[in-house]
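Format notes (please read before filing issues)

Several people have asked whether sequences and structure tokens are stored in separate files. They are not. Every record keeps both together, in the order shown below: the sequence lines, then the token lines. Line labels are part of the format and must not be stripped during preprocessing.
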Amino acid sequence: RINPGQGTDGGRVLELMQACKSSGLRTLDLNGIGLGPRGSPQLFENLHAGMCSNLTKLCLAANSLADSKLDHLVNALSTDSCTLSALDLSKNHVTGVLIFRALASNRSLTSLDLRDNPITDEQMLRIGTFLQKERCACKLGFISVTIPQHSAQHAAHHASRTLVLNEGVSALDLTAGHEASSSEAELEPGAFQLLAGVLKVRT
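Then the structure lines:
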């Protein structure tokens, strides 16, 4: 894990590491370095340009990333030369609209962490439906995402729930436990479709 600095300084990290492209570096952890709207465009522009093509995992949690500054990320993930198989975007401000765009033409990602992002159930539904289509070339088989609360009132009285499907999951229990009401255990339609889509990709 490194901290090249906030904003544009952090965004230039791939330029600085380009000299190490022949090394065995495969994972770059930039969690919480403060990229924000100034650093993220530069980072993803360099990624799109093919810098550090040896990377297979990129961790960008808690960097105040938002859809409006992530066009270059979508472009980078859409290239045939993209090598990223794991991407952590948790604890940002990324919506399902951008995630759908990113997955629509990506063929390298197998794992995606989207916890604590404002992704609605309708957006999950769209992504899940896409993943279930025969023409879908996406390889996403592992995902973590926060399930939206039913309402503001529900959110005030219940902890947020997370849908996690990773390499360690061999069984899923979607029934209500003895201490949980059916409304608390209920999986919204979009979350269910997303789960079904990821499971289809894994089969």
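For reference, the curators noted about this record: Residues 142 and 169 are 9 Å apart (CA to CA). Residues 176-184 have pLDDT under 50 and may be disordered.
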